[in-house]
Amino acid sequence: MSDTQEANTRLDPIVGKGRVIDFMSMRRAAFAISIVLAIVAIVAIAARGLNVGVDFTGGTLIELSYPEPVELGGVREALRGAGYEEAVAQLFGSPRDVLVRIAAGAEENANTLADRVVAALRATPNGQHIELRRVEFVGPQVGAELAQNGALAVLLSLAGILIYIAVRFEKRLAAGAVLGLIHDILILVGIWAAFQLDFDLTVLAALLATLGYSLNDTIVIYDRIRENFRKMRKGEPAEIINVSVTQTLTRTIITSGTTMLALIALYLFGGEVLRNFSLVLLIGIVIGTISTIFVSSALALVLGVNKKDLMPVVKERSDSGALI
Predict the structure, then answer these.
(1) 279-322, pLDDT tens digit by residue?
(2) Phi and psi dihedrals of 60, rounded to 5?
(3) Burial class, 85, CB count within 10 angstroms (exposed 0-12 / middle 13-18 / buried 19+)
(4) 3-state helix, strand and coil shares in percent for the chain, rounded to the nearest 5
(5) Taking a C-beta distance cutoff of 8 angstroms, is the pair 131, 65 a contact?
(6) Is 317 exposed, middle or buried (0-12, 13-18, 19+ CB in 10 A)?
(7) Are 200 and 103 in contact (CB under 8 A)?
(8) Nearest 5 degrees, angle CA 263-CA 268-CA 273?
(9) Contact yes or no for 203/276 (Cβ under 8 A)
(10) pLDDT per residue as tens digits for the range 155-166
């Protein structure tokens, strides 16, 4: 039995026993698509910029409580009628609690702004007994610091991932993983820029969560690649990577699929507060799963990973018998 046939006995039932999918033969087309998407994302970010929320630009947060469940459509219409067209209204914890976000503008006094918002909403049919619970002002300087800290968090995460995989596996695999993660984040941010979706701290948290999820999938495949490089003595690198990715495909499909089911429920029923968070993760899981196979694994092959790089280090013994 050849090394490839022996490895194929471990292939999962979705793919079929004895079958290996030739992912690496598609790497050039995958690279071309990834490069085009990355260029489009960069153009969208440069041309349109991000529609950053109050968390980053500064502004006023107003928490309101209604005596009964409220329709956000009516709240937003009342705010637009009062001249606050850019105000964001969303449910906050329950169908009776509403959080209004108004970007920094001419209004300098947060309490005066809150009084005007409450007065406009109390003029609506179900707003006579609105309770003002909280007013917070986020200054532009604080927003800028949050933006800088968020960008720093992403960069430090990528640096930590690079160091970990370089130590845990091999430097070429580390480079492939980090480039794949940069690809995922760039495309996600490009989508938010192209469609001018709200970019706030919730979205930033989802981006970091996407990094972790995509990395987990990459580590599983890399661990199988290393294992098969040590077991398949005569296989070529492309063949070994194909076997490794095929062996982990069912695990990837099941994990991604079940996570996406939970995120779809969260998107549909989690309310406005969690909608952007779940949407980022939904898109990020799809992009991350594809890039793990066609970008991270393929980049490791292109960068020249081979059997010698992944073989365990053989320790020699000195004349006295001690390991050196």
Answers:
(1) 999 999 999 989 888 888 888 888 887 767 666 655 555 555 55
(2) -120, 135
(3) exposed
(4) 65, 10, 25
(5) yes
(6) exposed
(7) no
(8) 85
(9) yes
(10) 887 788 778 877
Domain range annotation of the chain: 3-50+143-310, 59-138
Residue 290 near residue 180 (C-beta atoms within 8 A):
no
What Rg value do the Cα atoms of the chain yield, rounded? 26
Residue 94: burial class (beta carbons within 10 Å; 0-12, 13-18, 19+):
exposed
CA–CA dist 237, 297 (Å, integer): 11
pLDDT of 9: 47
CATH architecture assignment, domain 3-50+143-310: Up-down Bundle (1.20)
What is the reported pTM? Answer: 0.74
Could you tell me which CATH number the domain at 59-138 has? 3.30.70.3400
Tell me the backbone φ, ψ of residue 136, rounded to 5 degrees.
-130, 140
